[in-house]
Design a protein that fits this description.
It is built from 12 helices and 11 strands. Strand 6 and strand 7 form a beta hairpin. The mean pLDDT is about 95. The protein has helices spanning about 10-15, 35-50, 55-70, 95-110, 115-130, 135-150, 155-170, 190-205, 205-225, 250-265, 275-285, 315-330, and strands at about 25, 30, 35, 80, 90, 225, 230, 295, 300, 305, 310. It is globular and about 45 Å long. It has a 3-stranded antiparallel beta sheet with strand order 3-4-5.
Length: about 350
């Protein structure tokens, strides 16, 4: 299938002077729902790793960095919810918004072409890396950011300390042969768990963690493949004995799998990871349980979910970022699969 270039037009239309709105009704921003740090951190990830970014993409990255920085408290924990007037709600936590913030900040610090963005992102990463989280996915997102910093800035104390602590608790939690997943149910952004194992292992030279991540990802790809195409975990999760396909399937599941397969391809070049990455790309292009294209070529937006009757035509920020992220990997590795 032809692979379209990542398109940031819809994100631009979803964005005002404060940030990128979380939800949309079809392609129109639902401003009344405001913004969230989870999304803005993901904006920072995809804009920072965009090759040869346009001025528009650079502008989105700067705005995302400003939002994430303002969400961060003096102790490094984060707020997640902001209304359209700019008012923050809730309390500072070390939940997913904290982990995703570190992922975004670490990616910007390592990959941005803007020296000032790199400098500020690194400083904010170091502040956030003082915290630790009891939540597995928050910790996994943080690990992705720490591995970016450790690669770009060898010897960085904040990244090294976070990675060392993560390595103490990472791995060794797999279930039995019939259900090797380390949790009783698959839930959301599942592939970030093996992705983080690989990231921590590669950063620290721990081949045992890399191998555990690869094995877990191998199982997940097989579990989420149906009749030759991806059939990812539905929004309600799944466990041993559940029959598929399940709905609604969320684009974030496909994007997380694409991220993990892209990393695996660099750590295990002899593996079949690029074919698995192709499966993630093709899911958006219509090779899925319903045969539905999961993005709108007129707007550049990604559809919010795959139902048994076709796509949910709302084009929220999370889904659009999932689409962009997966296409970035697809184009990077285009033509590389055997």
């Amino acid at each position: 299938m032809n692979r379209p270039e990542p398109n940031f037009d819809h994100l631009v239309r979803m964005t005002d002077e404060l940030g990128t709105f979380e939800h949309a009704k079809h392609s129109t921003a639902r401003r009344e729902h405001g913004y969230c740090t989870d999304d803005m951190a993901r904006v920072l990830v995809v804009t920072s790793r965009q090759l040869d970014p346009s001025d528009t993409v650079k502008g989105l990255a700067r705005q995302a960095l400003r939002f994430v920085a303002e969400a961060q408290g003096v102790d490094g924990r984060c707020l997640n919810r902001r209304d359209r007037s700019g008012q923050w709600h809730g309390s500072h936590t070390a939940e997913d918004c904290w982990g995703r913030s570190l992922w975004g900040l670490g990616t910007a610090a390592a990959r941005s072409t803007d020296g000032l963005v790199r400098q500020l992102a690194l400083a904010r990463f170091e502040r956030g890396a003082r915290q630790r989280s009891p939540w597995p996915r928050a910790t996994a997102f943080a690990a992705l950011g720490a591995s970016e910093v450790a690669t770009a800035y060898p010897g960085n104390g904040a990244a090294a300390g976070l990675l060392a602590d993560l390595a103490e608790t990472a791995g060794g939690a797999a279930g039995g042969p019939s259900w090797p997943w380390p949790e009783p149910r698959l839930s959301y952004a599942n592939a970030v768990l093996p992705d983080s194992l690989m990231a921590v292992g590669a950063a620290l030279g721990r081949q045992d963690l890399v191998d555990e991540g690869l094995a877990l990802l191998t199982w997940l790809v097989a579990h989420e493949t149906n009749d030759g195409h991806l059939s990812v975990t539905p929004v309600g999760g799944s466990t041993l004995g559940d029959s598929g396909p399940g709905f609604d399937q969320q684009p974030i599941e496909v994007a997380a799998l694409g991220d993990a397969c892209a990393r695996a391809s660099s750590l295990d070049p002899e593996g079949n990871w690029l074919s698995a990455l192709d499966g993630a790309v093709d899911w958006f292009l219509g090779d899925n349980d319903v045969g539905a294209v999961m993005w709108d070529p007129l707007t550049g937006g990604g559809y919010d979910g795959l139902t048994a009757d076709g796509p949910n035509l709302n084009q929220g920020t999370e889904s659009t970022l999932a689409w962009i992220s997966t296409m970035q990997h697809g184009l990077r590795f285009a033509g590389s699969a055997p």
